[in-house]
Design goal:
The structure is a single chain. It is built from 10 helices and 5 strands. By secondary structure, it is of the alpha/beta class. Strands 2-1-3-4-5 form a 5-stranded mixed sheet, with helices on both faces.
Length: about 230
């Protein structure tokens, strides 16, 4: 009986150690090597319609007034249907989020990520694209038919995407060009960060930083990992 009880205790402890972040557990208490798994568990809760909505209280807001300690920096699209805090079921102070149309990674985004990596010491960066992206859709339309005309600043976004090596390398006659263009744009963000900030590669080698490219599916609510370093 004593041996059986010991097994039960060990089993319970094992289950506890594998549990995702609970509503009263702050993300900065999670070991950094488990952060991506915890965020993906949060996404599973979101996609399954069982979110915890952790750290979304006035009390937490007051705690954060003295300083922030986010554990992940995320570049995502400005699309109103892709809020990272909800998609990953996280709360105030957990994520350092940079959003723009098309989740493009240019100078300003790299500067923001540099701040998050160097000064906030985030151990995880995610470049998050999504299905049915309007910015990529505009790029695809323009790429296939140059008669499409856009206003000056929207055209700048399209031109930026068009200039990405990953987009230029895509065959134009493939049937899933739109979907592949979304993925190529995400991979460009990953590559641009690593190419422009040498510190990133050093931290990856030292196991102090993980950089991930991912796609959020608008219909299922699930996040799929594209590339992980």
């Amino acid at each position: 009986m004593a041996r059986f009880s010991m097994y039960v205790v060990l089993a319970v402890l094992g289950l506890i150690s594998c549990q995702p972040k609970s509503a009263d557990q702050h993300l900065e208490t999670i070991p950094k090597e488990n952060l991506l798994e915890v965020l993906l568990k949060g996404n599973e809760r979101f996609a399954d319609d069982h979110p915890l909505h952790p750290d979304q209280t006035l009390e937490r807001l007051r705690e954060l007034s003295v300083g922030q300690h986010p554990v992940a920096a995320i570049v995502s699209c400005s699309d109103s249907r892709v809020p990272p805090e909800l998609v990953f079921d996280q709360g105030l102070g957990d994520l350092f989020v940079i959003r723009n149309a098309g989740n493009i990674v240019g100078d300003y985004e790299i500067g923001s990520l540099e701040y998050a990596i160097e000064h906030l010491e985030v151990p995880l960066v995610i470049i998050l694209g999504h299905t049915k992206c309007g910015a990529i859709g505009a790029f695809v339309d323009h790429d296939h038919d140059h008669s499409h005309h856009y206003s000056e600043y929207i055209q700048k976004i399209i031109d930026f995407i068009s200039s990405e090596e990953e987009e230029q390398a895509l065959p134009r006659d493939i049937p899933d060009f739109y979907e592949k263009a979304i993925e190529a744009n995400v991979l460009h963000g990953v590559h641009a960060l690593k190419e422009n900030l040498p510190l990133v590669n050093d931290l990856i080698e030292q196991k102090k930083l993980k950089v991930v490219g991912a796609i959020y599916n608008m219909e299922t609510g699930k996040v799929r990992i594209l590339e992980e370093n």
